[in-house]
Structure formats: structure tokens, C-alpha cells
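PROTEIN DATA CARD
Card holder: SET domain-containing protein
Chain length: 175
Origin: Aquabacterium soli
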Amino acid sequence: MPTLRPLAPSPSAEPQPDPQADATATPAVPRLPGTPADPQKYAVVAAPSAIDGLGAFAAEFIPARRKIGEIRGESILTTEAHARARAAAKASGRIFMIALSERRTLDASASTDVLRHANHACEPNTVLKVQQGRVAFYALRDIQPGEELTARYGPTHHAGKLVCRCGSPRCIGRL
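Structure generated from the sequence above:
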């Protein structure tokens, strides 16, 4: 588990509201017209993962059944996604794509959303939901600060050729 630094305000900063106090509270800083809302509901950081590469880690307590946040990206045809995935696999080995439907795929390769680093686990602590072209993560149980956020990927382009390294006693072995 990586060491996470507490999110402490600078000495001159205004006191921050307690995020646990009211989940429906209006943000302190208004958005400019035309600016999309921040899709992240809880603080998540990217750090080296024992599972694979970078992982997404909770930087604060996340209660069960709560939306953690979303991954944004470019919606592309699935045929284009396959071509991009082949090119990405040859270049870096990292592919950040999620099927939205049989015809559309979300390419999150250029996304800055930290949740794109969530690794696969056979016994995950989050569930990935695709609804109306949006990809969101929800906590399956309470998640403690510093815990890696994981999701079950389901069928992947690896077609069973990639060894799973989640470490679960119930590991399926391959993705």
C-alpha cells in the first residue's frame, strides 16, 4: 500500500467544510458557464500498485454504495477502439478503454481522471457501471484511505492471455 500524504490546507487557507457532513452541499467555488462538473466525488490518487503499474487509491474514507467518480474520454466506434488498442499495446502496453455498447467505446487514454488507473481484481471493492454513455465507479463496501480501488473488468481484449495479479484466493487466473 502506498504512503499517502494527508490533504492538509495551507496555513493561510480558509477552513474547509467537512465532506462527510452533507453530501448534498453546494460546492464552495461556483463553476463557470460551459465548464463541466468535476466527476470525482471522493479524493482518489494514482500511485504505484502491487497489482499492475499505477493504481487508483482512496485518499479519504469512501462509504459503501456511494458513487466515487467517473472516467471521461473520447467516445469512439468499437472498430476504431480495436485499432487504437493494438497500437497502444505495441507502444506502451497500457490501454484505457471501456466498452459503452457493442458499437461504442470510451477511450480514456488522454483522460486526466485518476479512476482510469483502477486495476482489475477478482474480488473488487468497486463496481464499474456504464449508463447513458457515462462510466462511473461505485463502492461495493466501505473503503479505507490508502486502499487500492479495484473493479472486475469482465471480458477484455486480452482474451485470457494476460495473467491476473490481483492476489485474491479466488483469483480466476487470467484476463
